[in-house]
Every structure is written in structure tokens, then in C-alpha cells.
Specification:
By secondary structure, the protein is α+β, with helices and mostly antiparallel strands. It has two domains: 112 residues, Aminotransferase class 4, branched-chain amino acid transferase, N-terminal domain (D-amino Acid Aminotransferase, Chain A, domain 1), CATH 3.30.470; 154 residues, D-amino Acid Aminotransferase, Chain A, domain 2. Helices cover 31% and strands 29% of the residues. The strands form two sheets. Strands 7, 8, 9, 10, 11, 12, 13, 14, 15 and 16 form a ten-stranded mixed sheet that branches. α2 packs across α3 and α7 crosses α9.
Length: 281
């Protein structure tokens, strides 16, 4: 575990990193966050992540006293202090120490954590994953809130079903997974991803831009019937890149094996990350 974290702009020893129990993040689940990958000491696509963090704060009416550039400086300081090379960076903003236990305080609390995490193994990429359909939509889906109650309480059901994660749908339309965006590939190689009730993933955006150079890409609703006709499906996220989905409930996607589009896009993502690191200032 890294030795230092950042609490309200100050770098402190991890064991001394504390918030009081009246914080609204704890009392009412009122908080937002963002998460990015650190590779060789470089926070990948930090500008995009900090911009989304800023937008999430604005949408939730949380006071964020830092510009994107100032947040970047803080994150770089923390990475340097820990001599941190590879892992993840999580930045969290909460409603602060509420006077009445309900309404946000004048000052929010902001913490920055570094952590090590596991990426899916090569075997999982080669085999693909199974998802479980679940009727649910996230409130304020464009905001990266700290609320992951629904998928966490479903962990046992997922295990029983042999599924890696949920695939949310609402009103017959697929939206996203618990921590990833969702794509299908149609017979004519058109790539489709939903737009409603989804977090605008940083990886989703990059996948769409990169894919447009090779495939037709469309943002529109996906129905359960579309899943049955898809030749390929995959998830996208910061930790996964693009990860093939081969089964959803009892629906086999394509021939039940990962297709070629998802690995192709994952290679393009890796190349883009390499370029980003090369040009990072
Ligand atoms: C609900 C949800 N959708 C999608 C994503 C993927 O977003 P990103 O590509 O920015 O990691 C996440 C990331 O954690 C998420 O929580």
C-alpha cells in the first residue's frame, strides 16, 4: 500500500489520512469520485478524468476549490511522494461535515488515494466474460457518484450465476455494466453503444474515436433482441480496456467466443496510451 495519501490538499501519512464521522459521504452517500490508471508514474488521460470530476461536482452541487490544472499538480505531487509507478488513482469529493446531518457543508472534503489493482488476466481476455441482465438504471448516470450499492449487494447472485458482472437494462433498453460501458458489433460490423442512462466513460469516448477510423460507429439504444443478433459484444473501462462479452444470461453472443473487433480496439487503446505517455508533460 502507498505510504501517503492526500486529504484536502495536504499530503499525509496513509495511516493518518482521516475524515470525521459527520462527513456526508458516510452519512448520506453524498459523494463523487473519479478513477484513472497510473502507468510508469504517469496518470493516464488525467485531463479527461479531472474534467469529468469537475463536471460531476458541478452536477451534484458540490464545491470543488481546484481547477483541472491544480488537481493535476496535486496528483503528480502524491505520485512523486510515493514514488508510485503502476496502479490506480482515486479522487473523491464528499458533501463535507454536515451541521444537520443532511445538507452539505460549506466546504467539501477531497481525498486522493493511490492503490494497486488487478487487471483481468490474459486468460479472461481470451475466454471472454458472462454478464447477468438486471433491471435497473442509475440516477444521474452521467455523474460518477460513489453509489455502487446495487451491484455490490448482487455479488452473491452473480457468483451463483457464474457471471462476472451485471448488465443494466431499463424499459427494454440496455445501458451499461456496473463499472463499464457496453458495446455490440452487428453483422455488418457496425459498432453500437447506448447513450441513455450511461456514464460517459473516458474509455468509451476513446474507443469510439479510434473505432471510427476502421468501423461504422453508432450511438443508439440496444434492445435485448439486438443482443441475440450481435456477432460480438464487449465492455470498456479504464481498468479493462475492451473486454469481450461472450454470454448474457442464456444468450450466447455470436459463436460464444471473443471476436476480432474487441482485441483490435484494445490494441489501438494500448497504442494511444503509449503515445500519451511519450508526450506527457
Ligand atoms: C457506471 C460506470 N460506467 C462506465 C464506467 C467506465 O468509465 P471509464 O472508461 O471512464 O473508466 C465506469 C467506471 O468506473 C462506471 O462506474
Amino acid at each position: 500500500m502507498p505510504n501517503y495519501f492526500c486529504v484536502n490538499g495536504k499530503i499525509v501519512l496513509a495511516k493518518n489520512a482521516k475524515l470525521q464521522v459527520t462527513d456526508l459521504g458516510l452519512l448520506r452517500g453524498y459523494g463523487i469520485f473519479d478513477f484513472l490508471k497510473v502507468e510508469n508514474g504517469i496518470p493516464l488521460f488525467i485531463e479527461d478524468h479531472m474534467t469529468r470530476f469537475q463536471n460531476s461536482a458541478k452536477e451534484m452541487g458540490l464545491k470543488l476549490g481546484y481547477s483541472v490544472e491544480e488537481l493535476k499538480v496535486l496528483v503528480m505531487k502524491l505520485i512523486a511522494k510515493n514514488e508510485f509507478k503502476n496502479g490506480g488513482m482515486k479522487i473523491i469529493l464528499t458533501g463535507g461535515y454536515s451541521a444537520d446531518g443532511y445538507l452539505p457543508a460549506k466546504e467539501s472534503n477531497m481525498i486522493i488515494l493511490l492503490n494497486h489493482f488487478k487487471v483481468p488476466s490474459k486468460k479472461i481476455f481470451a475466454k471472454g466474460v458472462k454478464l447477468m441482465l438486471h433491471e435497473h438504471f442509475r440516477h444521474s448516470a452521467v455523474v460518477k457518484t460513489t453509489n455502487y450499492i446495487e451491484p455490490i449487494r448482487m455479488a452473491n447472485d452473480l457468483k451463483k450465476a457464474g457471471a462476472t458482472d451485471v448488465l443494466y437494462y431499463w424499459d427494454g433498453k440496455i445501458s451499461e455494466s456496473s463499472r463499464s460501458n457496453f458495446f455490440i458489433v452487428k453483422k455488418d460490423k457496425t459498432i453500437v453503444t447506448p447513450t441513455t442512462h450511461v456514464l460517459k466513460g473516458i474509455t468509451r469516448k476513446r474507443v469510439m474515436t479510434l473505432a471510427k477510423e476502421h468501423y461504422k460507429v453508432v450511438e443508439k439504444d440496444i434492445t435485448v433482441r439486438d443482443l441475440k443478433n450481435a456477432t460480438e459484444a464487449f465492455l470498456s473501462s479504464t481498468t479493462k480496456g475492451t473486454l469481450p462479452v461472450v454470454q448474457i444470461d442464456d444468450i450466447k453472443i455470436g459463436n460464444g467466443k471473443p471476436g476480432k473487433v474487441s482485441p483490435h480496439l484494445n490494441e489501438l487503446l494500448k497504442k494511444q496510451a503509449k503515445n500519451y505517455k511519450r508526450n506527457f508533460k
